[in-house]
What we know:
By secondary structure, the chain is mainly alpha-helical. It has nine helices and no strands.
Amino acid sequence: MANNNSSQVLLVKIWFLSPVVLVFFSTLAFLICLPVLPLDVMFPITIEALFFWLTCFIGFLVGLFIGAGGRLNMSFCQYRSNPKKVRIFLGALVMLGFIGTIIMFVDRYFIRGVSLAADAMENREVLLDSKASALSVIAAATSSFGILSYVSIWVAELGQIVVSRWLKLMALLSVLSAVFFSAQLGSRSLLLVVILVHLLAWFFVFRVRGGKVRSRHILMVFLTLVGLASISAIMMVSRV
């Protein structure tokens, strides 16, 4: 049993996060969607580029197996944690990400010259022409914590950890700022990562709390993916 300083929660299996499962289904989805794309993919690949891509891809899989391996296939029944330590860690994580977001806003819009009135290509050129400083490095490093801060709050609340509204607000602002920065530069990768990570985290939390996947949930996920694909296509065309 858990004592007064710990909590326990029933978790679901996370076999679907296995590297093999992810690679198989992502490759399958890519091959299925490729013939129906309304464009011709013309991207010449040299032997050197193919070798570099394979090296990065294999290194990614090896890293996943070393870091997690078979544990992704385990069924965890419970865990125990110290609520006080979790709250301290969570508060530090959210605050660090929020401060990093503020620093990034100041660095980009007041120091490096990114404009709210300019389009994505103009802002990308401004960032390329301007020299990154130590402040830019600090902003990039610290703001990255804010991207997953709201997901961390979701997971913490599963263990009956009480999170203040101010922390939730700061975490939400950090996530929305990341989406805004991505849209300002016409960057699809960060936008996709942020939305898909939160979508998977929502599904995980929903299942842990005993929720059943119904048709409306599947429809919501489908519409979200269609919306992401549409936004990505619009951003790609706008950069041509």
